């Protein structure tokens, strides 16, 4: 590590130019090739997957993308059949049909353009009649004919519009022209409301400047860093390092999308994680570097020492986060594989930037890493041996005196916050969960009010038949379905597809995200369809929005125990090797699970229960995305491991020196508490800012990760963990002798590595093993000289 830092310092111009060139080159390549992100949630082998495959292969004319134009007349303004309304909307729909990029339009007043024998192509989501470009963004499905497109009360009507390109390939300008055209029809018409729903319409709702959330998060992080350092130059270094690393990764993910399946939210998720950990990792190294400068080391010596010690902890922490993210590969889901690789790539590049670009920048700014006041004091007094006792030291003493009370309070708080997790309902949000100010949400609500809540998420039953008997059984099935509880309407059996494929559309009485709709899907699959298939070669599969969501969630839940087990076991093995203790890994696993459960409780309360979701601009309450637990578990286990390593490594060093558990816990908490809290504030700011992204999924990640980091840093690591370690005493560090002999020795931080001269060597002996070691004189703490001698005798393995 010291050799790498020395090379980067002496060739800092080359290092900086190489990083800038890499960033510019990858960004240019990504701009030229374009993006190729996917929203394919399809899981081969499930019923919903079979429905999609059969539709595309046998009924391609019904597998296209479409949006829905909805108009509504208020009470007192007549119905949608009024001559004035009909005239306005017919003219508008004809104008839409002539717009570039529009293939066809079919409305309730007669065909605007030919769309085949079944009317407009209907959008039923990626598991029904074709992918709408994003899971859950469906404009609704109605029967062909005028009456099927006008509500029973006559106040709501809709038309289906089919674009020539998939929704993912549409430009915002194309869709906005459609929306503006139909809204012109409502201009000056009292009581007439026109909205538009569907995947295409969703493109028009990207509000706010690009990357506003990232800018706000970085701005708050800069304020925290400036308050901690008091130096503008030192403040800018962690931010510049993180931005270069994350920016390069962001562009690289775009290129990676051409080689594997990458979800459209993966770049934003990678940026969210990368900014948080990237700024924090650079913070740890810069803090150690500043400490070296204050102790009289030269710029080069201090930077080498910082990378040789804190740099090792950064590598260990970053590798842990990457391994936790790559643990998603054990699920063998292509959709999550891309997310895992994208996020891990971002973390890896931020670590690389912290170890190479950051030392070069430290050499560039020289002594300006210290504030003006610190430079003056250093010139007047020489090196500083220790810092004054502060809040963290007083807090460490307070926890030591009242471990039972404080531990009980922390445990109770975590338990209360985790309670909502027991009501977790996995599903996928749709445009009904959007902001009430969005046209897609208003279109969704108008369709639900006019045609029933199940209208926005119909079920598609597709039958594979062989012979007349199968066709008769399938026809009888449509009659049977009308008698099933929870079914609002059933279309007649459509025996298209050359006679070997039939389609029935079922509209539930409940909304797509309702548990009752999921129960209906389960009854159809387990009870109704097996009876219809009995004694024949007929095979019927259930697709549609809810069916697809349920299939995806079921597969995730079935594999979640394996995934969590792999991640927990990996973390425990790493901590066992690092700290040579049975108790430390077990406590870490329990704390990590507690952090995950409590953060999920916050997510459930806000997004599923709707506590404040509308006020925060996050839309209406709805289910939690099925993949959220997997991704959050991997990220949170990695981040929690960071804090565990930074806290316990200092405690472990003190334990090896004194064999006094109380002193080890107190000193470790006192000397690492400030940097852990500063790092946590930065992460919380970055993660929370992503609520402003306008994307519900990213907002879920942002709030979940921010809550987890806050609880982990301020409740678990600085309260519950030290309280438990005080209560357990020497048992914290117990390891069976036979296991001690078997385990290899690894070093998180190498004390004295890279000491090119006696002064650096002395600094190495006296440095704490944590990410930052600001000596705090406590009443029971040995003198600095004793600490140096003790540490020299018992280096961290």
Automatic annotation (TrEMBL):
Residues 763-773 have a biased composition (Low complexity). Its main location: membrane. It is found in: Cell membrane. The chain crosses the membrane at residues 215-232, 239-259, 265-286, 313-335, 341-365, 405-426, 552-577, 589-611, 631-652, 673-691, 697-716. Keywords: Cell membrane, Membrane, Signal, Transmembrane, Transmembrane helix. Residues 1-29 form the signal peptide. It comes from the Bacteria. Residues 754-797 are annotated as: Disordered. It is a multi-pass membrane protein. Pfam families: MMPL (PF03176). Residues 234-364 form the SSD domain. Belongs to the resistance-nodulation-cell division (RND) (TC 2.A.6) family. MmpL subfamily. PANTHER family: MEMBRANE PROTEIN MJ1562-RELATED, MEMBRANE PROTEIN SCO6666-RELATED. This is MMPL family transporter. It comes from Streptomyces rhizosphaericus.
